[in-house]
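Ex. 9. Protein: Elongation factor Tu.
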Amino acid sequence: MDSIDNAPEEKARGVTIAIAHVEYETETRHYAHVDCPGHADYIKNMITGAAQMDGAVLVVSAPDGPMPQTREHILLARQVEVPRILVALNKVDMMDDEELLELVELEIRDLLNRYDFPGDDTPIVRVSGLKALEGDPEYEQSVINLVDAMDEWIPIPPRATELPFLMPIEDVFGIKGRGTVVTGRVERGTIKVGEPVEIIRFGDTRATVATGLEMFHKQLDETVAGDAVGVLLRGVDRDEVERGQVLVKPGSMRPYTKAKAEVYVLSRDEGGRHTPFFSGYKPQFYIRTSDITGSIGLPEGVEMVMPGDNVQMDIELMSPVPLESGMRFRHPGGRPHRGVRRDNRGDGLAWQERTPISDRSSPCSAATAGNVTTRP
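Predicted structure tokens for Elongation factor Tu:
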């Protein structure tokens, strides 16, 4: 747990700024825990963490109740399709009034219901992190109760181990005498030590070999989908790779700058936009771990898009990134509520592959949103 809030600025401000990874085990599971920023100033950093989650523990201060960023965290979890949330109601040792605690719990459940999580059934576990760390037996047990609730409430996700290897790069480190290590969560597939890999960068690709694998300071021979790992790359300098790029099986993906997307724009009541936007609007797009500026083009006859609208749009990114038909993206506009999400009809957000950077004259392939199909 030493890596959580361990940076000097985090200690000085008393808040989480960067995401941190820790591991622990229960009798039935092994958890790779991602500690995400809760403070509104660092909501952008949370997006990377949330995009990796199979489940989430929402920490709410009992004396303060849900804060404005609490709603943003829940909305972001919905946008990136975190399947289950449970709640750690913290600092309950500071609350003597049972009725006030029940009111805070009711407010949390209402908030979860508002964003299509099963708030009425969601476990809310009363804890005190400080008292547990001080060795208070009652609150030590409350943390055990929280982990038990995680085992029961968060489903074991299916892993796409049969698909080609893909790992979005979250961070990069240079290790003196050994080389460059990239870290991230394996999105799909498997990889073994000694196998060739390809870095898809912002405009080109770089072939290399995975000469080492490590997860929580343990050396591995193989890693699979769902693992949070570090990959040691042969012959790659630190400045040749950066966050937002992806590590893939050679030849399995290509970078693109142009795409089509089916988008639902969150309304003001849903925590989204207050104003319309027009063709030429240039927001930021969060695609896996990358943060890319892009230009939006609206269909002929559509002059503007209002909050609450469903629309198909053309997107042109300033830098090429690896895209696939049917993949999802987020446009938080700096805050997660200024974004896009799956709409209530089940339609999704889909990239439509168009002319790749490496072959501008090749024909396009197409996909519809939601259930992806191709056509000539």
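Check your answer against this statement. The chain has a mean pLDDT of 77.
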